[in-house]
Every structure is written in C-alpha cells, then in structure tokens.
Design brief:
This protein has one domain: Beta Barrel (Maltoporin, Chain A), CATH 2.40.170. Helices cover 7% and strands 55% of the residues. It has ten helices and 44 strands. The strands form six sheets. The protein has a 22-stranded antiparallel barrel. Strands 1-6-7-4-5 form a five-stranded mixed sheet. Belongs to the TonB-dependent receptor family. It is found in: Cell outer membrane.
C-alpha cells in the first residue's frame, strides 16, 4: 500500500462535506424569530468523534448476559464465533482488537492472538465501546471494530453485593452423561498436579527412550483417574459471585476507594453429535466416508477475580488506579465415539476420550489521568501494564476398540494411527504495554477544539510446546487386537494400562514427536507507535477529526522439532513501517441530526498461530490447525458514512454505509492433508460492504393508556440490522507452506488455481439482526425483556487449495431469550430476583459442506437445549 497514495478520497470527502455545510447557513434574524441549531443531547454515542456502539451496565442487566462475548452479539454489525470471538462487519476476529481500559488483553488461545471474550464477566464491567471507524489513538490493527471494555472503578459509597444462581439445560441436566475422576480440585477449575507431564516422559522425547528405559517410560503416567469413563446423571449448573466496594478515605484533599469482585461458575453441556470428515467433494455417497456419532459431557468451570484501587486528589484533577484481574476457564470432557471405519478397515469402532483444558489470563494495570489547569487545561493520561496468559491441555487421552463379530465385545486394538494416545500441550504468552496520551484544548475560529498526541510500546511473546505419546503392542493380530493376551483385550482400560501389564512388554509407550510437525514454537512481536490528531469544531455545524498514526513493528517466528539435532527453523522477521491517515467529518445540519463521513487506512498483522507451523487441535470443532510462516500483513482502506438522529439520551435512529478494500486478507483453508486439517494463506484481495440500521427508544406507557397503573412504566424497544456482502479475488498469487524434508519452504502459485474467485470472506454473514423488546417499571425496578439474535450462514473455513474439498459453512443458531428481573422483599431484607429462559426455540448447532450433488452434508452438528436459570442477589 502507498501509505499516503490513497488520501485523495478523504480530501474529496472533506470538500464535499464542507460544501454541504456551506449550504446550511444559519437563518438571519427576522423580527422575533429564533433559529436553534445543533441542540445538545448528552449521549456519548453522539458526542464521540467516531462511529461507535455502546453498552453499559443497564444493558448488561436487561440482556441477562453473564459474559461480554454474549453481550456484544447484540451490537449492530457484530456477531460472535465459537462463543468467544467478535466478528465485526463481516470481518473475523483477527480484524478486531479488544482492550481493557485501553490495554490489550493477553490471549490464552493457541489458535489466535485475539483474546476470548467469553472469559470476561459483565459483572466487572461498567460498559463497553465498539468503535467502528478508526482513529489514530487506537492500534493500527483495525478492520472491523476496536472494542474497549471499561471496568468498574472507585465506588461512590461502600457496598457488599452477593449473587447466587442455578440453571437447568433441557438437553443436559439430569440426563445420563459420561464422567471421569480427574484431580481432587477439578471442581475449582484447577488441576492439583495429577496431570503434570512426567519428567521421564519429557526426557524420553528429548533424548530418546533408551535414555530413560522402556519400562520406566511405560509406568510413568497416571493410568487411573484420568482414564476410566463412568456413567451418571449430569447435575444442574451453578454460579456464585461477590462484590465489595469500600471507601478507605474521603477528605477535602483526596479520596481513596477499592472495588473487588470474585466469581465462580460451573456449567455442564451434553452433546449428542454427528461428524462427517470425509475428504473430497463426494461427501454423501462416498464409500470411503469418515463419519461418526459421539456423546460428550463437557464441564466448564469459570473462576474470576478483579480489583481496582484508586485515589483521587487535587480537587479531582488527578486520578491514579491500580487494576488487577484474573480470568480462568477450565474445560473437562469425557467423550465416547461410535462409527464404522469405511475409510480403511470397515470395522465398527469405539473411541473413548478424556481431556482437561485450562485457560488463564492475568494482568496488572496502573493508570493515571491528570488535568493541569495552569497549563491551559492540558490533560495527560498514561497506562502501564504487564500480563500473562496460559493454556494447558495435559492428559488429553484417547483409546480405541473394535467390535468383535464373534463375541460381541469391543476389543482393545491399535488401529491405523493416532488411536491410543496421551497428548500434552501448553502455551505461555507474555505482554508488556505502555502508553501515554496528551490532550490540549485550543481555540480556532472562536471555538474550543482539541489536539491529541501520544505514543505506545508493546512487547508480546509466546511459546508453545506439545508432547504426544503412543501405546503400541509388539504382538497384534490382523485387526490390530492384542494377540499375546486375547482376554486382556476385552478388559477394562484401566486394567489394560495397569503397571503390571505395561511392565510386561505386552504394550509399550513411545514418544511421537519424530512423526509430527514441529512440536515447539517461539514467537515475538514489538510495536512502537506514535500518533497525532486534531479534533476541530470548524463552525457551529461542522466538526473534523484529522490525524495520522505511525507504527514500526517486528514479528518473528521459529519452530522446533525437539527430537532432531538442529531441529529449529527460524523464519525471516515480518518488519514493517506505516504512516496511516484517518479523517472523520461530522455535520450537524439541524436539531439532533448529524451526519458522519470517515476514511482511514489500517492494517492487520498475522497472529502467532497463523505463522507458527506447529500443530494444535481446536477442542470445539476437533480440527487441527497449522500455521504458514510466509504470511504478510493485510492492508485496509476503510470508508464510512452514517446519519444519526437522537431523540433523547440513549434514544436514536442511525443509518450507515461502509466499504472496505483489503489487500492480502488472511483466510483459513483446508490443506487437503486430512479432511480436518487447516492452515492459512493471504488471498490477493477482497472487499466487503454493507448497510447498518439501528433504532432504540423508550415509550412511557402512561402516554398510551389511561389509569394510574401505567404511571412509571416504560416500553423499551431496540433493534438493529446489518446487511453486508464480501468478495475474495483470485486475481494474483498466493503462497502456502510446504514441508520439504523437514524444512518449510514457500510454495507460490497463481491464486486462480488455488482459491475460488468471488467467494465470501471467512466469517462474513449476509444478514445480522437483533431485537430487544421489554417492559420496565421504574418505581419497582421490574424488567421483562425478550431478545432475538440472528446471523445468516458464514464460512467457517475455506475450501481446499485447488478446490478438491468444499468450504465448511456454519449456520449460527437463532437465539430467542426472555430475561426477567425484580426487586423483592423477604424477611425485611431486599433481594434482586433474576429469571431467564435462553434458546427458547431449541436451535441446534450445525456446520456443513456442499456435496458434489449440491446437497448439504453435515460437518458437525449437535443438539442445544433450552436453558432455564434463576438467580438471587443481595446488596448490603
């Protein structure tokens, strides 16, 4: 991209807007006629210089969403993938940034640099801002939206708040599910050390089995509590949270306060699912089809803790706050899969799997804001933060059995490959961040405007490690069943894997790293940035925000095969410098109507997992992802126009148009290595455009109906709709990574032979629709709200390179929820009662591909239940 080569459209837009403003001159006085222009409505959505959408604590309460990912799907132009990641204006999560109080959130996801927002509870947030046009004080990595989450601060008064909740799922609760013991502290979301990788096993990978001895390796693993699956009834979901606010000191000179929140949740889900991972284009009638049915019980445990302690001094001109938070989510799963191996042996198969996954993010932030009245009201805001994220998946186990036609029993067998395994993986992510912003008011054209400038520095590093082990028998029959002891093959798996059997050479354990893609990776990124912008009130009706951001970045990646000498391969660093302009014009023609136009240039860098060619498995979809170290930055030209009409505070109608021209968009595609293996490539270019409409208003019911019973009651109505379209161009070249004798080399070719010209961008839905309709009693605090959320189908990941396998499409379930809250009195105490019914329509999950015949072939589908929840809170 010519960094300033496309500023002409912004200049033309500015001239056009000025011309429109010039025709809207104020009417001259005629006697006693008074003309009022640009009436003030105190609404942050209106007063920001950029196009944005806002949610506050009232929205969180009305919507009944416990995490910010669920809440953000109500915002115009936004949807959520995998229940965690925002998709803004048809651009998936790599094109959006998420910050907490202006600081990037570390990510515990090995598959993405973006932080999963499902682990951020709404309880700790005062609100959120989703800015859809770019301004230079934000990171240059912008395409869809910049999402800033704002935590609660120093309280106005001391308080204690407790909340307890219970939930029933019609597809899960009290039905028969699968379980395994695990460690004694699993219920708290922490492993107590039971699942630690044995040191002997790690040494066997690095130095070979002979260095530790075969029997020592065979008996090193835990073979009881992480292995045996049992049956039982799935319990109800539960949650608990406590918040405490304390005013430590409140004097004429300073004010000190602290707010603390802790929360815990335990949620169960039973999946009765079907998978079809058949390769090629004939997915429905393929004699070598790879399909399976599985039943899985998933237990997700959330633990979070948050504290903000702050001081205000200097008559409120200075504030310093220390914010620390811990966000954890742990997933425990037991799964039994049944299928017929039509691909190879035609055997009836049973796979038993157990897994444990911990995700954790913690960060400490020190923030300050200062107003210097004697320096022409100069404001200085600064923030410094250090955080870490981790992801650990130890003792991810699978065992394999085939059905004996003679005995009718499932017998332990080796299978083809990857059948009897123990897998370990871990990720560590560190993030240091510093930023400072200056705001200087100044007068121009007799009106107050602002000059803002500042800079930031970010240092992010990540390491990953994977350890895989096989169970192999030296003596097996034709079908892979243990021949040394046929009666053993029909035994319980904990007996087969007992130390006595493993020490007898009937079954041996071997390290698998030598047959894998690289099992370790390192990545780092440094970004130094500076910006300046002027927010100028040109006249009573026209406002301009014009600025530029400079970023200098370096991103490095290396991968290692730890079983090989000299097994590390480092790739050329991705180093870039950018000067990125941005301009937004706001015209207030009359009353509370305003029109905005914006143009900007932004970028998106490849995420660490997109660059590192080490395999990781997505636990939700069961697909393997491997990176492409030859990816380059995406460059984006953004155009926006929006008309806004504000009736009152938080009441508005907006209509907006957007267009984005993307060079080198990063897309996830199927490699063809296996039907469930994906990687990434830069398509030559793409475009996305669309329309957004938002409407929100409250209607006092006493204006519609007579009678005292209607006083103080309001009808709340909010809706938004987004239509968008996208096209990926195959006019150019693409580069994918090829493994050549253990080294990864670029494979560059004509895009027309590798991707489908004109297909949709990954993650883009043509239609997004939200509706909220509620009744509120202002006097009693009673609220009843119905919520509808709809997103049309989207590409989950793209077709196989060369078109030998179709794209996987996802149809997000339609969500219809009811949320009720009421203040109640019980035994002379006041409580808050909350009741919600979610997924009333019982919509299921579905991802599918198009068969060669044109019919839809399932890729993954499972039932989702209706959830009934009740909560009780008490404020002291």
């Amino acid at each position: 991209m010519n960094k300033f080569g496309k500023t002409a459209p912004s200049a033309l837009l500015a001239l056009a807007m000025c011309g429109i403003a010039g025709t809207a001159v104020a009417q001259e006085d005629e006697g006693d006629v008074i003309v009022v222009r640009g009436a003030l409505v105190p609404d942050e959505k209106q007063n920001t210089a950029e196009i944005s959408s806002l949610l506050d604590a009232e929205d969180f309460e009305r919507q009944g969403d416990s995490d910010i990912a669920s809440a953000l799907k109500r915002v115009a132009g936004l949807s959520i993938t995998d229940g965690k990641f925002p998709v803004a204006r048809g651009l998936n999560e790599r094109y959006s940034s998420a910050t907490l109080n202006g600081v990037p959130i570390p990510s515990p996801e090995p598959l993405r640099r973006a932080a999963p927002l499902d682990i951020v509870p709404t309880r700790i947030l005062a609100g959120s801002l989703a800015q859809k046009t770019y301004s230079p004080e934000y990171s240059a990595e912008f395409g869809g939206a910049a999402i800033d989450l704002r935590t609660v601060g120093v309280p106005n008064e001391s308080f204690v708040s407790l909340k307890i909740g219970m939930e029933v799922d019609t597809e899960t609760t009290l039905r028969e599910g699968y379980f395994y013991d695990g460690s004694d502290t699993d219920v708290l979301g922490f492993d107590d050390g039971l699942r630690n990788l044995p040191g002997i096993a790690d040494r066997a990978v690095r130095e070979g089995v002979d260095a530790v001895g075969q029997i020592a390796l065979d008996t090193a693993f835990e073979q009881d509590k992480t292995l045996l699956i049992t049956e039982g009834d799935v319990p109800v979901n539960g949650s608990f949270s406590a918040s405490v606010g304390l005013i430590i000191a409140d004097t004429a000179n300073y004010r000190i306060g602290t707010t603390t929140h802790v929360g815990y949740s335990n949620e169960w889900q039973f999946r009765d699912a079907f998978e079809n991972r058949t390769e090629g284009t004939n997915l429905l009638n393929n004699s070598n089809s790879v399909t399976s049915d599985y039943d899985e019980t998933r237990q997700e445990i959330g633990v979070n803790a948050f504290n903000t302690t702050g001081i205000e001094f200097g008559n409120g001109d200075h504030e310093i706050a220390l914010t620390t938070y811990l966000l954890r989510s742990s997933l425990k799963s037991a799964k039994i899969t049944s299928d017929t191996d039509n691909d190879v042996t035609q055997n009836e198969i049973r796979r038993e799997s157990t897994s444990w996954l911990e995700r954790e993010v913690w960060q400490g932030q020190l923030n300050g804001t200062h107003l210097f009245a004697d320096m022409k009201d100069l404001e200085f805001a600064w923030r410094v933060a250090y955080g870490e994220a981790s992801r650990e998946e130890p003792y991810n186990r699978q065992t394999y059995r085939i059905l004996s036609p003679t005995s009718g029993n499932y017998l332990y067998a080796e299978g083809e490959a990857d059948e009897n395994t123990i897998k370990f993986s871990e990720l560590q992510d560190e993030n240091f961040y510093f930023a400072g912003d200056f705001t200087l008011p100044f007068d121009v054209f007799g009106r107050t405007s602002e000059l803002r400038f500042g800079g930031s520095y970010r240092d992010n590093s990540r390491s990953t490690l994977r350890r895989d082990f096989d169970f192999r028998s030296p003596q097996t029959g034709a079908t892979g069943v243990i021949s040394a002891s046929p009666e053993l093959a029909a035994s319980r798996i904990d007996l087969i894997y007992s130390d006595v059997v493993l020490a007898s050479n009937i079954i041996n354990i071997s390290a698998r790293a030598g047959r894998l893609f690289p099992d370790a990776s390192e990545a780092s990124m440094e970004v130094t940035a500076a910006y300046a912008l002027a927010d100028v009130q040109l006249n009573d009706y026209l406002r301009a925000s014009v600025g530029v951001r400079y970023e200098d970045s370096s991103e490095e990646t290396s991968v290692t095969l730890t079983t090989a000498n000299g097994g590390t391969q480092s790739f050329d660093p991705l180093e870039e410098e950018y000067f990125l302009p941005a301009v937004t014009l706001t015209w207030n023609p009359f009353g509370n109507i305003q029109v905005r136009g914006a143009y900007s240039q932004t970028i998106t860098r490849p995420q660490f997992r997109e660059l590192a060619v080490a395999d990781f498995v997505d636990p939700n979809l069961g697909i393997t992802l491997t990176g492409n170290p030859f990816l380059v930055n995406s460059e984006i030209d953004n155009y926006d126009v929006r008309a806004e009409w504000y009736f009152a505070r938080n009441e508005f109608l907006t209509v907006g148009l957007f267009y984005k021209d993307i060079t080198n968009p990063i897309e996830q595609y199927q490699t063809g290595r296996e039907a469930n293996t994906t990687s990434f490539l830069n398509a030559p270019s793409a475009e996305v455009y669309g329309v957004e409409v938002e409407f929100e208003k409250k209607f006092p019911l006493d204006e519609w109906f007579d009678g005292e019973q209607w006083y103080g009651k309001e009808l709340f109505f909010a809706t938004n709709y987004t239509w968008s379209e996208s096209k990926v161009s195959a006019d150019g070249i693409v580069t994918i990574a090829r493994n050549s004798q253990g080294m990864f080399v670029p494979d560059t070719g004509d895009a027309a032979g590798r991707i489908t010209d004109g297909r949709k961008l990954q993650g883009q839905s043509d239609h997004l629709f939200n509706l909220q309709l509620g009744i509120e009693n202002i006097d009693t605090g009673t609220k009843l709200t119905g919520l509808v959320n709809y997103a049309s189908e989207r590409v989950l990941f793209a077709e196989t390179v060369g078109g030998t396998g179709p794209a996987v499409l996802e149809q997000p379930p339609v969500s219809f929820d009811l949320v009720f809250s009421q203040d109640v009195e019980f035994m002379s105490a006041d409580y808050g009662l909350g009741i919600s019914v979610k997924n009333i329509l019982g919509e299921d999950y579905s991802a599918y591909r198009e068969d060669i015949s044109g019919a839809d072939a399932p890729f993954l589908e499972y039932d989702r239940g209706t959830k009934f929840s009740i909560s009780l809170s008490r404020d002291f």
